[in-house]
Every structure is written in structure tokens, then in C-alpha cells.
């Protein structure tokens, strides 16, 4: 497993659970040191327990020597970063580096599996980059096996996937990789390399589209006094639509949807096509924070000099990931408008306190109420939902709650004397 980020580590531990022997390779020696001493460098439920189990059983090992890892393995998974460039295209330098190292260290037949999300045509490039570096001509097959796990639920998703997609040009190599997943019962789709690559992007774009769709409907619900959660339930009961990913709120963030949509849009442009739906999906998301701020200002007036408390910084619960988190955009926008900001997050505070953000981090949720003019919930952490809201209302200067995730109990909060706003909620 070359690369020990979310995808690499989770896949490695999933394969160990399926009784395979896995070597994790990473050039970041500080990270390897942490991992070897049973510590996961990010917050992801369940991973540490499995790390302990497989390190002590000897089914998992770590090395920073990529060459040695390549020489000693039959199957090489590429699970490195594929960040966005400023024009939306994907930076493939880490994948290229890995492919070249595989090529120069190849000592026999290898199956190279790309799991990093990368544009259509990348696996073909990987094949070429490997061949260019081989010391002598050796057989190699490249397989595309995209990953569909969610942060916060990574382990569950890896062990209980809805499907496994395996793209390859060589049927034998494809079957070899499919066999790795024998113990997992789910549909296994065998397809071509380019198809597998596009399935990954299309899946993420479709999910983002569902969210932007319900967020747009949420705005109309506000205008007509209709409850968007009822609309979502009503349409979701149609099995052709499905109820998941229809939770209206502040919008999607994270390390995947924004980057993958940018990359997909770039692929359209490269093909001289206009991605009209995708542009609209992004536009709704890009204007959602603004929409919420208008709702806030309608209730509070000018925010200059007011104290706004942010609940939740992570882009979603059960992770400490703040990449493209709506909370960051909200904090920056409110700061620009002259508000004072406090924030609390159960794990971002401990693990990855964001530096340079114009916000005072609280060490407890209850501190966010003190002399605050508004509490703005941006991550639906469970402990926020089960908090004793009743006893803390009097500590706020203005008891206004903006629920950016439609997660709180609106009726109870209103009874306690709060002014509540959630998108498309009837009040
Ligand atoms: C997403 C996909 O769900 C995974 O299948 C995929 O493997 C992953 O990207 C990836 O490409 O690596 P992830 O970004 O971890 O997973 O998180 P999601 O659970 O998809 O949530 C994404 C964003 O949408 C979050 O900000 C979340 O709060 C928001 N969201 C989600 C909503 O606003 N409403 C919903 O109904 C669902």
C-alpha cells in the first residue's frame, strides 16, 4: 500500500481483516513512527483498534523504503494524494513519482492497482510511466479500483461496500484483484480502466448534485413556509430517488467533493464540452453560506461588534478534517463583516487546531453560550444534539440559533425560548 492517508490506511486494515499480508509504504518517516507505535495520525473511529490488532499479529508492517516494498510485493496499491491545481486540473505528481519508483524497482510480474482518485486516462499513464523506468522489459498490469469510503465511516464502508469496481484491460489481472475481495459480499463490477475512473467521479458528482438540489429546494421552502425535511422524505420514498444525501444544510465540503467536481469540470472543458449541471451544482454550494448569512442578518441585524459562536469546525461529524469545511468559510465571512467569533469542536480543537483563523477556540461547548448573540451550528456532532440547551439559554445575549445542518430539535429549542432558524424549516 503506497501512501498511508485515509484511503491507504483504511484499505490496508480492511485487507488485513480479510487475512491478507500488507506492507504500508510512506516516505513520511514521522508519520510511520506514529503508526508503528499504534497511533493513527487523524481522527477516524475504529482504525486504531485494528491497527493494534494487526501490528501485534504481524499481518501489517510499515516501511519508508518504497523500492524494497515494491520488490517484496506482488500487488501494489497506489493510495497517494491527488490535489487540485488552481485551474481545477489534478496534480498527478505523486502518482507519477510512485509509478516511476515501481518501474525502476520492478523485479518480476506486478499488478499495480490505482485507488487514488484521478482523471480518466491516468491508469494508462501509470502503465506508461512504469514501463519507461523498468531496468529491463517486465510484465505489469494496471488496474483501477476506485474507493467509495466516507470519512468518519471509513472502516465500515471499506468492510461493507455497496459495490467493488475493478477496471482493467487484462481479465486475468482483474480477477486477481477481485479475489482479494472474495470474503466481501457485494456486487463486483468488472469493467474497463477508463470506465472505472469515470464511475468514481460520476458517483461523487451525483451525490453532490443531490445535496445541492435539496439545498436549492430548501430556499424555496423558506419562501413558501414548507418543511424541506418533509419534502426530502416525500421524494426519497420514491425508490428511483432514494432518501440518502437529501439533508439540506450549509452545503458540502471536505477533501473530495470540491476537488472531484473541479476535476470533472476540467475534464469536460478539456473535451470541449460544457458541464452545465455540474456548474449549477457548484454554484448552489458556493452561494449557500451567503444565503445563511442573509438569514442570520435578517434576525440579528448588522453583525458588526456582535459575538457569534460556531459549533463544529470539521466538514462533517466523526472526523477532524477541516478541508473545504463550511465552518471556515462562515468564520472568514463573519470576521470580514466585523463580528467576534468563538468556536467549539470536539476533535478539531484537540487534534488540528486551525491556525490563523480569526476565532477564539473554546475548550467546552458551554463556553460558546456566554454573552453570545448567535450560535451557528455547522457540524452535527452527536453531543451537540444531546446537549442541555435548556439550562444554557440565559447565558446568551441574544438566544438566536442558526442550525446549518437542520439537526437540532426545533420544537424543543423554541419552547426553551430560543429563536431558531434552519433552512426550509417551518416555524
Ligand atoms: C465522499 C463520498 O460520500 C464517498 O463515497 C467518497 O468515497 C469520498 O467522498 C471520496 O471521494 O473520497 P466524504 O467526503 O468523506 O465522502 O463525506 P460525505 O459523507 O459524502 O459528505 C460530504 C459533504 O456533504 C459533507 O460536508 C456533508 O456534511 C455534506 N452532506 C452530506 C450534506 O450536506 N447533506 C447530506 O445529505 C449528505
Automatic annotation (TrEMBL):
Domain UDP-glucose/GDP-mannose dehydrogenase C-terminal: 309-410
Active-site residues, record numbering mapped to chain: 256
Top-level EC class: oxidoreductase
EC number assigned by the record: 1.1.1.22
Species, as recorded: Marinithermofilum abyssi
Molecular function via GO: NAD binding; UDP-glucose 6-dehydrogenase activity
Residues that hold NAD(+) according to the record: 26, 31, 82, 117, 151, 259, 323
Membrane-traversing stretches: none
InterPro entries given in the database record: 6-PGluconate_DH-like_C_sf, NAD(P)-bd_dom_sf, UDP-Glc/GDP-Man, UDP-Glc/GDP-Man_DH_C, UDP-Glc/GDP-Man_DH_C_sf, UDP-Glc/GDP-Man_DH_dimer, UDP-Glc/GDP-Man_DH_N, UDPglc_DH_bac
GO biological process terms on file: polysaccharide biosynthetic process; UDP-glucuronate biosynthetic process
Positions annotated to bind substrate: 148-151, 200, 245-249, 253, 316
Catalytic activity: UDP-alpha-D-glucose + 2 NAD(+) + H2O = UDP-alpha-D-glucuronate + 2 NADH + 3 H(+)
Keyword Nuclease attributed: no
UniProt xrefs under Gene3D superfamilies: Cytochrome c1, transmembrane anchor, C-terminal, NAD(P)-binding Rossmann-like Domain
Protein name, as recorded: UDP-glucose 6-dehydrogenase
Family: Belongs to the UDP-glucose/GDP-mannose dehydrogenase family.
Keywords from the named record: NAD, Oxidoreductase
Pathway: Nucleotide-sugar biosynthesis; UDP-alpha-D-glucuronate biosynthesis; UDP-alpha-D-glucuronate from UDP-alpha-D-glucose: step 1/1
Amino acid at each position: 500500500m503506497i501512501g498511508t492517508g485515509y484511503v491507504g490506511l483504511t484499505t490496508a486494515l480492511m485487507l488485513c481483516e480479510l487475512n491478507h499480508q500488507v506492507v504500508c509504504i510512506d516516505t513520511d518517516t514521522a508519520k510511520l513512527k506514529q503508526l508503528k507505535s499504534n497511533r493513527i495520525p487523524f481522527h477516524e473511529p475504529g482504525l486504531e483498534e485494528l491497527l493494534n490488532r494487526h501490528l501485534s499479529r504481524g499481518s501489517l508492517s510499515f516501511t519508508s523504503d518504497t523500492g524494497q516494498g515494491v520488490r517484496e510485493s506482488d500487488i501494489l496499491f497506489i493510495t497517494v494524494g491527488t490535489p487540485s491545481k488552481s485551474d481545477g486540473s489534478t496534480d498527478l505528481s505523486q502518482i507519477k513519482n510512485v509509478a516511476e519508483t515501481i518501474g525502476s524497482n520492478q523485479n518480476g510480474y506486478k499488478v499495480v492497482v490505482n485507488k487514488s482518485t484521478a482523471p480518466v486516462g491516468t491508469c494508462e499513464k501509470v502503465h506508461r510511466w512504469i514501463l519507461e523506468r523498468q531496468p529491463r522489459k517486465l510484465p505489469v498490469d494496471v488496474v483501477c479500483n476506485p474507493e467509495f469510503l466516507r470519512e468518519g465511516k471509513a472502516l465500515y464502508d471499506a468492510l461493507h461496500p455497496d459495490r467493488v469496481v475493478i477496471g482493467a484491460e487484462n481479465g486475468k489481472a482483474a480477477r486477481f484483484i477481485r479475489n482479494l475481495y472474495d470474503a466481501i459480499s457485494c456486487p463486483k463490477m468488472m469493467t474497463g480502466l477508463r470506465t472505472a475512473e469515470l464511475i468514481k467521479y460520476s458517483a461523487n458528482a451525483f451525490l453532490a448534485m443531490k445535496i445541492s438540489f435539496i439545498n436549492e429546494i430548501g430556499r424555496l421552502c423558506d419562501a413558501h413556509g414548507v418543511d424541506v425535511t418533509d419534502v426530502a422524505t416525500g421524494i426519497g420514498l420514491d425508490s428511483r430517488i432514494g432518501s440518502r444525501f437529501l439533508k439540506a444544510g450549509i452545503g458540502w465540503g471536505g477533501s473530495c467533493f470540491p476537488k472531484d467536481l473541479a476535476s470533472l469540470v476540467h475534464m469536460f472543458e478539456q473535451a470541449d464540452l460544457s458541464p452545465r449541471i455540474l456548474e449549477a451544482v457548484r454554484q448552489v454550494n458556493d452561494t449557500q453560506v451567503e444565503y445563511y448569512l442573509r438569514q442570520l442578518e435578517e434576525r440579528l441585524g448588522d453583525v458588526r461588534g456582535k459575538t457569534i459562536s460556531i459549533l463544529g469546525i470539521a466538514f462533517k461529524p466523526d472526523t477532524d478534517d477541516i478541508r473545504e469545511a463550511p465552518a471556515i468559510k462562515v468564520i472568514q465571512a463573519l470576521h470580514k463583516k466585523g463580528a467576534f467569533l468563538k468556536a467549539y469542536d470536539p476533535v478539531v480543537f484537540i487534534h488540528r487546531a486551525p491556525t490563523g483563523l480569526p476565532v477564539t477556540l473554546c475548550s467546552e461547548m458551554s463556553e460558546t453560550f456566554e454573552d453570545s448573540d448567535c450560535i451557528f451550528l455547522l457540524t452535527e456532532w452527536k453531543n451537540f444534539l444531546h446537549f442541555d440547551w435548556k439550562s444554557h439559554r440565559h447565558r446568551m445575549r441574544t438566544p438566536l440559533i442558526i442550525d446549518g445542518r437542520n439537526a437540532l430539535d426545533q420544537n424543543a429549542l423554541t419552547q426553551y425560548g430560543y429563536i431558531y432558524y434552519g433552512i426550509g424549516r417551518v416555524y
